[in-house]
Amino acid sequence: MTVPLLELKDVSKTFRRSRTESVVALGSVNLHVAAGETVALVGESGSGKSTLGRIALGLLAPDGGSVFVAGRQLQQLGAAELRRLRAEMQPIFQDAAAALNPRRSAKGHLLQALAVRGAAMETEAIALLESVGLRPGHEYLNRLPHELSGGQRQRLTIARALAPQPRLIIADEPLSGADVSIRGQILNLLLDIKQERAIAYLLITHDISVARAFADRVAVMMMGRIVETGPAERVLTRPEHAYTRRLLSAVPVLPGRAIIRI
Amino acid sequence: MNGPPLLDIVDVSLSYRTRRRVVRALQAVNLSIAEGEAVGLVGESGSGKSTLARAVLGLTPAHIESGSIRVAGRDVTHLTENDWVGVRGQPIAIVFQDPLSYLNPVMRVGRQIAESVELHTPGLPVDGRVRELLEQVKLPVTCAASYPHELSGGMRQRVLLAIAIACRPKLLIADEPTTALDVTTQAEILTLLKDLRAQLNMAMLLISHDLGIVASACDRIYVMYAGRTIEWGRTASVFEAPAHPYTIGLMHAAQADRDRDGRFVTIAGEPPDLTGLQTGCPFAARCSRALPQCTELMPGPIGLELEHTVRCWLYGASQSAAATGRNGAPS
Amino acid sequence: MREFWLRFASHRYGVAAGFYVLVLVLVVLVLEVVPGPDPHDITSAVMRPPSASHTLGTDELGRDVLLGILHGIRVSLTVGFAAAFGATTLGVVVGATAGFYGGVLDLLFMRVSEIFQVVPSFILAALIVALSGPGLPQVVAVISLLAWPQVARLMRGEVMRLKHLEFVDAVRCLGTREFTILASEIIPNALAPALAAGSLIVGQAILLEAALSFFGLSSAEIISWGRMLNSGQRFLFNAWWLSVFPGAAIFLTVLAFNLLGDALGSALNPRTASQ
User: Which domain holds residue B189?
Assistant: First the structure.
């Protein structure tokens, strides 16, 4: 039994809203992601899925439970060791514009990320840009974030996430910010990355169709707890929990099927 | 359809200036809504759908350059602010995407609904009417004492709806009413809209980038791209046999369909640039089936089946619409 | 950099103001090299209105007003720049630290800044003068201490807004140290409003120096526009030129720095590029 890449054991988190009020964001959550696996964490707003994502990335400390990355417990690591381990898991955020430093060029962002593994060279940056579909790479080097379109910005954040050669990518609503017509392009990109580089994904989303398209396993969250997990195929077609069923039935389905014309 | 359409948008073009460029937000748009009808308007960013909604109520800073908009027979294309008072609210009301931005954060919601009541039905006992409206939108009466931030997203949207129907509008424009909401709340709001429409015999213009919502709630739909309507017709016809390559692509994308190689079906390229002069179809650059004439001239409306029209040269070659076949391919 | 100058150049008033300031600096430099007639020279041509020999008139001791104004530039600019620099540096450091780290540090710094915002300027000036005598360095110190809170507040607000943005988290996930994040990710993006406020402080400093001079709290031997106004106010109705010209100089210079501040503020924003 190999050690999972990411393991969250009994993780809980409470936020203090004021002196008298607290909100339980997560209540004893257990989740794991194996190497090369894609796990979709599905839930609506307020379910705690984003909080879980941030705890998994080590950006937030849980109040209870523990987080293991490649078998090492995050809370027990020293600051320097934690920084080194960070290279293993990289984030992709929903709002690509907010995920980029407005004063840094594409080259600047990529070199900064490449420095983590000592590969801060322009040639590497160009290769990364082209690998996410920004071709020719050298034309994009000096562009600032506001000089890129929404889709291009998201590709840049994906390139940045790939730079340190992580084994896990934690993507929080990676498609929600993009236009529908761009989503397919981004989905294909993520799919290519998954197939070519065998990177594991923790895909946090409220969009069932994204989970359906991508995931090996699905975990459904509601009010800070995981109510159902299992193979994607099973959970999405034969849901067991009442909430999962409610979630699936609420998704509007398009009448008829358009015939594929290539 | 008896009588003039409730809303009749004919050949409307609208541009506005930013610091250095002219943005052509709408180009020769045609759209009509009959009484009691639910019409959907689908498009992405830059399609012009929100601009169109706002233009109907005079809420855009730009002027309509050509064409006309008629509301229940009355020409509203060039109204002054004072005149708009007679159109906004009644007969046309509007709700927007993000209820939190459209509600006064320092006023209780009951008071905000009351404002609408007082404005449009003066002399009516206000408290009773507010309670009635809250019931109609399925909100507990105790909500009236709450502030917007104390309510959930779904509840806030219901408050906006209450404010809108206080005017007893003939037409409700809903601009992305559920985009900011969860899937389960979304379903509730759509059901509510359906009920309200039935109770008040209210027509609806539902604007969204989400095809699923529009499919479930609307009788007819229009698809917009780069400021133009490129396909329209009965919902069932358009969804079962989408004609325009953009519409087809949109449907595949909405369902995350995959092709034979397992890759997601996409629309290539980037969203349209609305500045600068363009000849021909704005989708030509991204279209995998573009014909030579597509970059030269924008096609006029071409009728397919009954109540299904498309603006695409792929269907222009044949004269008769019936010869095009079920999936819209040229024969 | 090039884009910065392009954006700056599109503000006509800012450019005009920039030229005005350059002219002032030029005058100061020229006077260093070629002192010319001494503005302190007492002559017998007392209280003369503007004429061919004395372009802006003379004061009660026969000193030429034009010379006084030209030599007064140095004081105004020195005090202005020094105070603005001091206030901005202090404000940026305190505001950024308070905004980024929050907690007790934030509380402490903000209470301290409030004290400085609340204390009346003259009490502070009088206190400092009482402790170390009148003089330009003291004036600069007083103005810096009074003006840094406004910069700190702006900086703190911007930093607090920025630190929650995703790009900060993204860089954290690369293993960057917190302090490096503050210095190289957040502060460069938060500086624009603070620098714009800083340039406004130049104008405030010149006015405050004039006011302190007016009340004799500044250096007595040096010619400054404020001191000229001070002396001239007694003669407002019979020798208007003694107040009007120094007053105009103060007004124009403060206006120029305000316009420069506006132009600088929008030129620093990478997004107000040509649309």
Answer: 35-49+81-219
Q: How confident is the model at residue C87 (pLDDT cuts 50, 70, 90)?
A: very high
Instruction: Select the residue of A184, A256, A259 nearest B253 (Cβ to Cβ).
Output: A184
List residues bridging with A72 in a β-sheet: A69
Determine, yes or no, domain membership for C52.
Answer: no
Most C CBs within 10 Å: which of A104, A173, A204, as the mutation test of the C interface? Answer: A104
List chains touching C (3+ CB pairs under 8 A): A, B
- Reduce the DSSP state of residue B30 to 3 states and report it: strand
Residue of chain A whose alpha carbon sits nearest to that of B47: A179
> Which of A94, A189, A261 to mutate to probe the B interface, most B CBs <10 Å?
A261
pLDDT in tens, C43-53: 777 887 888 77
Residue of A nearest to C275 (CA): A147
Q: What CATH code is assigned to A6-99+169-250?
A: 3.40.50.300
A159 vs chain B: nearest CA distance in angstroms? Answer: 19
pLDDT in tens, A144-195: 998 888 889 999 999 999 999 999 999 998 887 777 778 888 888 998 898 8
In chain A, residues with a C-beta closer than 8 Å to the C-beta of B250 are 180-181
Q: A7 pairs with which residues across the strands? A: A32, A68
CB contact under 8 A, A250 and B265: no
Residues B249 and B214 in one domain: no
CB spacing of A146 vs C273 below 8 angstroms: yes
pLDDT digits (tens, 9 = 90+) for C21-30: 899 999 888 8
Sheet holding A6-16, edge to edge: A22-33, A6-16, A64-69, A72-73
Residue C241 lies in a domain: yes
Contact B256, B7 (CB under 8 A): no
DSSP code per residue over C38-92? -TT---S-TTPPS-SSSTT-B-TT--BHHHHHHHHHHHHHHHHHHHHHHHHHHHH
B39 sits in which H/E element: strand B38-42
Give me the CATH number covering residue B183: 3.40.50.300
| Mean pLDDT per 10-residue interval, chain B, length 331 residues | 80 84 87 93 87 88 86 86 84 88 91 89 87 91 90 90 90 89 85 91 92 89 92 91 90 80 82 77 87 84 86 68 36 34
Q: What is the pLDDT of residues A225-250, one digit of tens each?
A: 999 999 998 998 899 999 998 888 87
Per-residue pLDDT, A261: 38
Residue B330 in any domain: the answer is no
Chains with 3 or more CB pairs closer than 8 angstroms to A? B, C
Q: List Cβ neighbours of C123 (8 Å cut-off, separation of 6 or more).
A: none
A206-210, C131-135, C162-166: which is most confident = C162-166
Instruction: Compare all CA atoms of chain C with the CA of A117 and give the residue at the minimum distance.
Output: C174
Task: Give phi and psi for B95, each to the nearest 5.
Answer: -125, 145
What total number of domains does chain B contain? 2
- How much is the ipTM here? 0.88
Which pTM value belongs to this model?
Answer: 0.82
Residues of chain C contacting residue B18, judged by C-beta atoms under 8 Å apart: 275
Q: Kindly determine whether residue A258 and residue B242, on different chains, have CB atoms separated by under 8 Å.
A: yes
**Amino acid residing at C200:** L
Q: Which of C173, C176, C189 faces A91 most closely, judged by CB atoms?
A: C173
Domain end residue (candidates: B184, B219, B254): B219
